[in-house]
UniProtKB/TrEMBL annotation:
It is found in: Cell membrane. The lineage of its organism: Bacteria, Bacillati, Bacillota, Bacilli, Bacillales. Residues 72-298 form the ABC transmembrane type-1 domain. Pfam families: BPD_transp_1. This is ABC transmembrane type-1 domain-containing protein. It comes from the Bacteria. Signal peptide: none annotated. It is a multi-pass membrane protein. InterPro entries: ABC_transporter_permease, MetI-like, MetI-like_sf. GO terms for cellular component: plasma membrane.
């Protein structure tokens, strides 16, 4: 009994050391999550009116709210374009950096990754300046080259606005993909490549049959995290249409073409005259459900070959 008591007394110290973390997590993370869930079940506005309405916010959101579905469709379109481009270009650039053609590998890795270290606010301002219809860089360049006769309002139409957002997200995240792929390629045993070359494999065969399959865990991580971040996209498109770059302040861009679920949540909760906190909380949890759904689907799709075996 004395021995058991001594062991119990000795083992209590690790729990005492980790207790502050769990307390801070409960106060700063767990409580806000649960309280937001409660808010989503109420009709709570700026004036303190708080009525419990159950799942009415979710019913309205999923079955009657066209803006939510449009915002969700927008981010799906964005990801369907820039995510395959990031995977392809990330692998090709990483392969080039890790090849014998590049000597100063660290310099090129840092140069590519520097875009990802730029804050979303700075990225939004940069692309606002590039695509400003009055004095933007692209309009001036195209006019100097004689390719256009009058300036294009890139942020004034639905189709071109979407392409600007896609290009912006692609530019910012390319370095993130390249860094993971270069790390993955550097960890592959060189003897595998040497054996393939001895067997007569071409560079294309080595890349498609050895490099890509061995990078599958990295692809899984990058795609899932990109889906999560893509569904949370808000700062970049919001800054593009803040007013000074697009000519007028437009919530969601022209025809709502760049509206995102998180932008919709912000607009419903903190913008305008309604201040519907319950609706905003429901949008947040509705977006979380789709993040979980798309993440599971993405994992199943990437691992489909392994499941078949």
């Amino acid at each position: 009994m004395q021995k058991a008591k001594g062991i119990s007394s000795k083992n209590k110290w690790p729990y005492l050391f980790i207790t502050p973390y769990f307390l801070s997590y409960a106060v700063l993370s767990l409580f806000p999550i649960l309280f937001t869930l409660y808010i989503s079940l109420t009709d709570w506005d700026l004036y303190g009116n708080r009525n419990f309405i159950g799942l009415s916010n979710y019913t309205q959101l999923f079955f009657h709210d066209a803006f939510f579905w449009k915002s969700l469709l927008n981010v799906i379109i964005f990801m369907a374009v820039y995510l395959p481009a990031l995977v392809l270009m990330g692998m090709l650039m990483a392969s080039l950096i890790e090849s014998k053609l590049i000597r100063r590998k660290t310099f090129f890795r840092l140069s590519v990754f520097s875009a990802y270290m730029t804050t979303p606010v700075a990225v939004g301002i940069i692309f606002s300046l590039l695509f400003d219809w009055q004095g933007g860089f692209f309009n001036n360049m195209l006019m100097e080259m004689g390719l256009i006769q009058e300036k294009i309002n890139w942020l004034g139409s639905a189709s071109s606005s979407r392409w600007v957002v896609i290009l912006m997200v692609f530019w910012k995240n390319l370095g993130y993909f390249v860094m993971f792929y270069t790390a993955g390629m550097a960890s592959i045993d060189t003897s595998i490549y040497e054996a393939a070359v001895i067997d007569g494999a071409s560079s294309k065969d080595v890349f498609t049959r050895i490099t890509i399959p061995l990078l599958k865990p990295i692809n899984l991580f990058l795609i899932i995290t990109s889906i999560i971040s893509g569904l949370q996209l808000v700062e970049e498109p919001m800054l593009l249409f803040s007013g000074w770059a697009s000519g007028s302040s437009m919530v969601g861009g022209p025809d709502g073409s760049t509206f995102t679920p998180i932008w919709y949540m912000f607009d419903a909760s903190f913008n305008g005259s309604a201040f519907k906190y319950g609706k905003g909380a429901a949008i947040a949890y509705g977006t979380f459900l789709f993040i979980a759904l798309f993440s599971v689907v993405g994992m199943k799709w990437i691992n489909r070959d392994g499941d078949d075996k």
